[in-house]
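Please review the protein record below. Let me know how this chain folds according to its tokens.
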Amino acid sequence: MVAELQFRLIFMAVFVTSVSISAYYRRKARESGEAISRRAEGTVVLTLRACGASVVLTSFLLYALIPRWMGWSALPLPQWVRWLGAGMGIACLPLLWWVFRSIGENISETVLTKKEHRLVTYGPYRWVRHPLYGVALLELLSLSLLASNWFIMLLCLIGTLVFRLAVIPVEERKLIEAFGEDYEDYRKRTGALVPRVHIFYRTKPDESRA
């Protein structure tokens, strides 16, 4: 019983901290640069985003506050696996901060590209084109292990498919339109969600970094 309470507290601590990091940097970006409204993507996309976010948030809150209501999707995972999930979730927090710190004002609420968008190729972006999505999915996986819950794990799988098959292709088309060959070259040497095998590929230093 004590261990279960610890798991739930860590679960909420990781989730709340990650949301706080995201909210802080997104607010800074809105205040200091161009902001693109989510409505610009259209009603269908906006509705799908809202539905997806509602499902994730509801499942998280139910597990943390009323765990018996998520009992139908519980997994009989050993405690060491759940502690592994806890460690992974905590490790995601500095990674998330690194991603937001690197992208800065370029962060967007949508897959659309800002007029003043800069191609960021330093920090985690040196190896991965979409590290924010990658870290988010890793955190979702870690929380599913921590909660010992197959439904949250299913959400991670669905999220991976949505990002890889729908979100990333649209976003990268916009980036190719904005940066042309520079982005094409960048895409050849980096992974979409995780680093490629040749992570030590020598790249030309990003001259845009101050």
User: Anything to note?
Assistant: The mean pLDDT is 86.
